[in-house]
Specification:
By secondary structure, the chain is mainly alpha-helical. Helix 1 runs antiparallel to helix 3, helix 3 runs antiparallel to helix 4 and helix 4 packs antiparallel against helix 9.
Length: about 270
């Protein structure tokens, strides 16, 4: 078999690998874009709970990264079809940009995660201090969506001015041993979906006490968002650097394709 034929065979294998990689890349881009769009729609009350760090740009950044990854993926399909060295170079540059962005995202997560967590803690503490059940509250929305209660735990509510001012907690219970309806577990008969809620006193949002919390989401919102021992940061780092590693594979495949195209081009000039 001639060297040119071998080069074509290797080139075909590399293109198949590039197509497989590109499919994975497109799926990743769609995931980033969907996450960004969801964040734009659902993040507003979380932004309100972040007192010191503005996280409102995060969904837009995710959408931008997702769009760039999708464009890179579509360009990858063209690269796999066309035997064009210029297109291979452009594709390699696009993947390189995505790689650098993901590395930068991982480093940013390391640098700012503790600051963001501290900002959320400050914001949640302020929301508990200013809580008014008669108006729309970001803390209620967060507790309902995340299935959490308070910042660290449901006990945070017992120290809030709202709990201290509740007129009546229930037979034999003291003021201050109460949490909002948004802390109740679904299906307990005391959650927001219960049709009887409208008949209850809006000032009495009791659904458990310090001894009986079976109806209350016991996990704090900070633990849900960031993990008890920094699991969220670890997951973010694994995702960011894992994705960056896959981009390296795409770059290597592109470089190999470029070299084979160049080898074939040189061989043709010799005949």
């Amino acid at each position: 078999m001639s060297s040119s034929a071998k080069a074509y065979r290797v080139l075909s294998c590399l293109k198949i690998m590039l197509i497989i990689f590109t499919v994975f890349l497109l799926c990743t881009g769609v995931l980033f874009l969907a996450s960004g769009i969801y964040g734009l729609m659902a993040l507003k009350h979380y932004v309100d709970l972040s007192a010191e760090v503005n996280i409102s740009m995060t969904p837009a950044v995710l959408c931008g990264i997702g769009g760039l990854v999708i464009v890179s993926g579509l360009f990858g399909f063209l690269t796999a079809v066309k035997n064009n060295k210029c297109m291979v170079n452009c594709y390699c540059i696009l993947i390189g940009i995505v790689f650098l962005i993901e590395i930068a995202g991982g480093i940013t997560a390391i640098v700012f995660m503790n600051q963001i967590e501290s900002s959320f803690k400050t914001g949640i503490d302020k929301a508990l201090m200013d809580y008014n059940p008669s108006v729309e509250n970001p803390i209620d929305k967060a507790q309902l969506e995340l299935g959490c209660c308070g910042g660290i735990s449901f006990n945070d509510w017992f120290d809030s001015p709202w709990a201290a001012n509740v007129r009546q907690c229930g037979p034999g219970l003291q003021n201050g041993t109460t949490v909002p309806y948004s802390c109740c577990r679904p299906g307990t008969g005391k959650d927001l979906d219960d049709p009887r809620k409208q008949q209850w006193d809006q000032d009495v949002c009791f659904c458990g006490d310090k001894l009986d919390v079976t109806n209350v989401n016991s996990e704090g919102c900070l633990d849900i968002l960031f993990g008890k021992s920094g699991q969220t940061l670890r997951y973010l780092l694994i995702a960011a650097f894992g994705m960056a590693a896959t981009q390296l594979a795409g770059i290597l495949i592109s470089v190999c394709i470029y070299r084979k195209l160049r080898e074939i081009s040189i061989a043709r000039r010799h005949y």
